């Protein structure tokens, strides 16, 4: 493999690979069907305080 | 509650065996090295190992064993120890920082012993605050957050102690090694090969403990804070191993040669260095922010899905940004450009995190006003936003032409470390200490308010004076007269720094005073708790939260 090809791969593959990966993360995390579950996860840590002081 | 009282007799025996092995390791190191820093480090390990052998050995049969009830409780004794170590390293590391700041103003004050020279003390400061203060805080809070978000007790009782004590041995080796002139000459990775190997063992144990505990979780999901902590643990392992690959000169010498050379060495070092900022000084602390801020404000994080998006953004963009430390060097131009581009892109996930935290406080501003602890966390998020904006700006090649080699970089560093890292740590400490020592509040609630104002004033004085210093330096170095000669000699630019260095020393002293106050306040809270600590262990709740 020539040096130029190697540099081309190094220059493009990272950004493309990562751009694609970010797109998948975006689609998955912003999927409206996950909304309710995310809401529940975000609240799951809050009950902690109340539970701890109740003992 | 002491370490031994929380261990069953089997666990005490395992601890005893590990301590004996540590003593043998120390003896072997000292014997093979005969003299020099490695021999001293061997002796330190020997003394620690023997002390632990006596401590655990004396308790093998005497103390009552902990009751079976413990399985239904969080295991917080290691976190308590980690908090104490965090506070000790804060005072030591920042104390050395203030001393260094004073030396820059008044270099003649350097005592005659080489161990007190600027060059040897500087890494004592950086390692002391980053690894000693930051690292202990990360490990201690990670155990706390992991258990509470998973509603599970730590997977076993011996490995948390191994991780904490082993990590602190590494920090002590690092600091004492520098005083004796030992260094690998890689910034933030100065300790020598044997200390590096030791850290690998400690870190793998940490990772395994984390994963095993997560596997036992009683919650269906893994809360986002854990992702950040895991990224911190995993990536730091990867960075540490690759950057520290080295060949020892001999098995008995505390000296080695890195296997990397030339510009590859520089690139590996700054891939490490920048990701140390990302994964040591950012990812784990974001884990802290995502847990302690919502809990303290009693409001869920503003957007959970944004927190996921910014997590992956931070993980993937940071990896490519290291080359911004090597602008205008022998590194190929396009690699510098790549680093610059990714540094600018990084602003998006960074601001997403900072904004997410600040937006969480919407509707709770009265709490921010009244509660100094929450205010620490709010200010941390603001400085996180400010320092990442500044970082992305400094990464732009022509801007870096002005800022590089100047005190602007050091100003940027401390806007991140004082304003962001230290503030979130103090917020977390004030949240945890009363709970973990079974109190309603800190012993001196007013002192928390004082600490807040000392910290914010100190940070602002520090950062603003170094911005001025850096830009002045940069402009003086590039000023030419009509004949094309430099307008200023280098020494003139040094003299111009004196007022800023004096101001920085003052700012640092205020910040240190706040940290000392925090340590005293925590000490008073711990003493006031007395035996109540035993009752402070909190029961687990195995029901998933609704
Ligand atoms: C988007 C985020 C960030 C970017 C793009 C960034 C970028 C930069 C740049 C361009 C430099 C100067 C390099 C040079 O001229 O040598 C630098 C230095 C530094 N930054 Fe940041 N920064 C960011 C966030 C942070 C944060 C949050 C912290 C601390 C908590 C931090 C800690 C440091 C440190 C310690 C150095 C000094 C490294 C050395 O020893 O030379 N950075 N950063
Ligand atoms: C009392 C507070 C502090 C003071 C007075 C202080 C002072 C200093 C001084 C004088 C230097 C050397 C700068 C130079 O060589 O030009 C320095 C470097 C550094 N400090 Fe601090 N510091 C403080 C707190 C912290 C904290 C809490 C952290 C991290 C959590 C930290 C991280 C660093 C780093 C990473 C460097 C190296 C910067 C570089 O190479 O660009 N400092 N500090």
Task: Tell me about this structure.
The complex is a heterodimer of chains A (55) and B (546). Chain A contains 3 helices and no strands. With 55 residues, chain A is an all-alpha fold. Chain A has one domain. Chain B has 2 domains: 1-61; 77-527, Up-down Bundle (Cytochrome C Oxidase, Chain A). In chain B, strands 1-2 form a two-stranded antiparallel ribbon. In chain B, helix 3 (77-105) packs parallel to helix 5 (159-179), helix 4 (118-150) runs antiparallel to helix 5 (159-179) and helix 15 packs parallel to helix 18 (498-529). Chain B is globular. The model of chain B has no long low-confidence stretch (mean pLDDT 94). Chain A binds chain B through residues 7, 11, 14, 18, 21-22, 25-26, 29-30, 34-35, 37-49, 51-52, 55, and chain B through 148-149, 219, 221, 223-225, 291, 294-295, 298-301, 304-305, 308-309, 312-313, 316-317, 320, 332, 334, 338, 435, 538-539, 541, 544-546. Bound molecules: protoporphyrin IX containing FE (2 copies).
